[in-house]
Amino acid sequence: MSRLNIVVGITGGIAAYKAVGVVRALVLAGHDVHVVPTEGALRFVGRPTLEAISRNPVHTDLYEGVAEVRHVAIGQAADLIVIAPATANSIAKLAAGLADDLLGNTVLASEAPIVIAPAMHTEMWLNQATAANVATLRERGVTIVGPAVGQLTGADSGPGRMEEPDVIVAAALARAAAAAGLPRDDLSGRRVVVTAGGTREPLDPVRFLGNRSSGKQGVAIAEAARARGAQVTLIAANLEVAAPGGCDIRSVSTARELQAAVTEAAAGADLVVMAAAVADYRPAEVSESKIKKQPGDDGLTLELVRNPDILAGLGHAPHEGTLLVGFAAETEPDDERLLALGAAKLEAKGADLLVVNRVGWAEGFARDDNRVVILGRDGVRARADGSKMSVAHGILDVAVQHLREQAAPDPGVAREQPAPSG
Ligand code: PMT
Q1: How far is the CA of 21 from the centre of ligand 1 (A)?
Q2: Angle at which helices 388-407 and 165-179 pack, to 10 degrees?
């Protein structure tokens, strides 16, 4: 991506110290970064730090630089505005369109895409006023990154932590690229295998044990990978949506058919994404003829046997050169426990990345939208929500970053350990 003029707004919360990491990552990525802190932000992090890291002067005063009409000039010149952390107060001001400081003026005077990373205590995040303000910003097209769930400044924990700087930077740059209509060909020359849909395990010639997967999420991933230049093999299990053009489609029905197809296709692939919902059990016997009710019976007992765990089979075999992305479909309502289940599944399956989504009667399956957390071995790599296509791109953004890291590991960049933030 060419050099962008990026405004980083920093508002007054303890997570302001992590904003320094956001500024640094954007500068190192080659962008021209202008930091606009609020007065509150400067109580947490000093102006000299922000000037040194951004390599630009830092202004806060509305009444300085009047001759150059600074209160609108910074926003007019921006290609992207990132506000991290965004406190409950600053979110309310953004939603109301207030311009009582330089950051407020900058935002109102700008047509650039806006990405915000909320950070606050859980009660404030869950407060109806904050929820309404966030919904207003979302409706206006503002991208909301996080907040993450975890320990906050005090002893409390829950949703409210500011996302990690690399997650914010990845989301912000993806938003800028999308806004500029830039084609992403970052999977060009890569071979990608995607599984989609739900397996069906026959009981007899007319019945099966299945699940509610439509194939929408997997198909979106295949389409997104093809649009980004990959050569895509789609292992399609009983899709309820049209298969995408331009992909090599291998139709399967049962878990064992899916296993055979994916094992063959995965050999030599750069990326394998296992989005299909696979049956863990199948009937021990398949009747050759339709199973009939028997006179006088009041039920039918089926014996089931375990299906192979396909992802674990691939994950625990040597797969150097192939990035393995699994999914976790969980009904767990609690966010923290949901992530813990995902982390355990990542480990158990030997996957490199795991996409955790909550499923239920009205979540995940068959819908057009999804909400996921993408876990790596070192913790949360990104979150994505919205249409299944935008979630697909969010997953591929992380996969591309991972493939790049594998190709050229950067010994100087260690992932930050989770640190308390408000
Ligand atoms: O198709 P949609 O209607 O769009 O719905 C999308 C989805 C909810 C199906 C999708 O987002 C999703 O969550 N897919 C994974 C469903 C699943 O089987 O999750 P799981 O937690 O049971 O399995 C974990 C992982 O192991 C998955 O990558 C699965 O493909 C794989 N697996 C599971 C069982 C098995 N025997 N072998 C496997 O490889």
Answers
A1: 35
A2: 120
357 lines ligand 1 (CB under 6 A): yes
Give residue-wise pLDDT tens across range 192-251.
999 999 999 999 999 999 999 999 999 999 999 988 899 999 999 999 998 888 899 999
Mutational pocket test of ligand 1: of 311, 316, 389, 395, the residue with most ligand atoms within 8 Å of the beta carbon: 311
The CB of 326 under 6 Å from ligand 1? The reply is yes
Q: Name the nearest CA neighbour of 337 among 356, 320, 313, 312.
A: 356
Given a contact cutoff of 8 angstroms between Cβ atoms, the answer to whether 7 and 83 are in contact is no
Looking at ligand 1, which residue's alpha carbon is closest to its atom 34? Answer: 278
Nearest to 190 by CA among 105, 78, 272, 68: 272
* The total number of residues written for the chain in this structure: 422
Give the architecture-level CATH label for domain 5-180. 3-Layer(aba) Sandwich (3.40)
What is the best residue among 200, 235, 278, 361 to mutate for testing ligand 1's pocket, by most ligand atoms within 8 Å of CB?
A: 278
Annotation says 133 is catalytic: no
pTM score = 0.69
Nearest to 151 by CA among 126, 119, 124: 119
d(CA 78, CA 6): 6
| Nearest CA, atom 36, ligand 1 | 309
Protein residue closest via CA to atom 21 of ligand 1: 328
Nearest residue to 58 (alpha-carbon basis) of 44, 72, 39, 79 = 39
**How far is the C-alpha of 202 from the C-alpha of 132, rounded, in Å?**
48
User: From atom 18 of ligand 1, which residue's Cα is the shortest distance away?
Assistant: 277
Domain map (residue ranges) of the chain: 5-180, 191-291+300-407
- Assign domain 191-291+300-407 to its CATH superfamily: CoaB-like (3.40.50.10300)
Q: How confident is the model at residue 140 (pLDDT cuts 50, 70, 90)?
A: very high
Q: Look up residue 103 and give its two tokens.
A: 């950051």
